[in-house]
Design brief:
With 134 residues, this protein is α+β, with helices and mostly antiparallel strands. The chain contains 1 helix and 8 strands; from the N terminus they run αββββββββ. β4 and β5 form a beta hairpin. The chain is globular, with a radius of gyration of 15 Å.
Length: 134
């Protein structure tokens, strides 16, 4: 009985986070029809002046430096998440798995950051680089 209660609490928490993400997407007025989301990231992708919506547990190492956040060491298997990068051209990257097997550097992040079971970043950054690893 206790395990069912814990499972229901976890499910409720996941649904709550999904609703928050959906509201944030609507609030920043992203038009999915105007820009085709990409499923895969090109090698060493770099985006400037981007909006990030990231709720993931795909990375288990997060390092914070002066004005820089680095996420690496891809966790496998991992729980579902979301990773969206939006810039002046629209949606540049969209992943509902929560990320890529990559080394990610985020510079000049301004917004909400939380580190726990899930890493949550919602806000704007000056630059983000994504370097795939194998």
């Amino acid at each position: 009985m206790k395990s069912i209660y814990i499972s229901l609490c976890f499910l409720f928490l996941m649904l709550k986070r999904l609703v928050i993400v959906c509201l944030l997407i609507l609030s920043i007025n992203i038009h999915f029809a105007d820009s085709a989301p990409e499923i895969n990231i090109k090698p060493a992708a770099e985006f400037s002046n981007a909006t990030l919506i990231v709720i993931t547990n795909a990375y288990f190492h997060v390092e914070k430096y002066d004005g820089k956040i680095v996420m690496h060491d891809f966790r496998y298997p991992h729980l579902p998440g979301i990773f969206i990068i939006v810039d002046e051209n629209g949606i540049e990257a969209f992943n509902i798995v929560g990320g890529w097997r990559a080394y990610i550097e985020i510079y000049g992040f301004k917004g909400f950051f939380n580190e726990g079971t899930y890493i949550t970043l919602i806000g704007k950054c000056d630059k983000i680089t994504i370097t795939p690893v194998r």
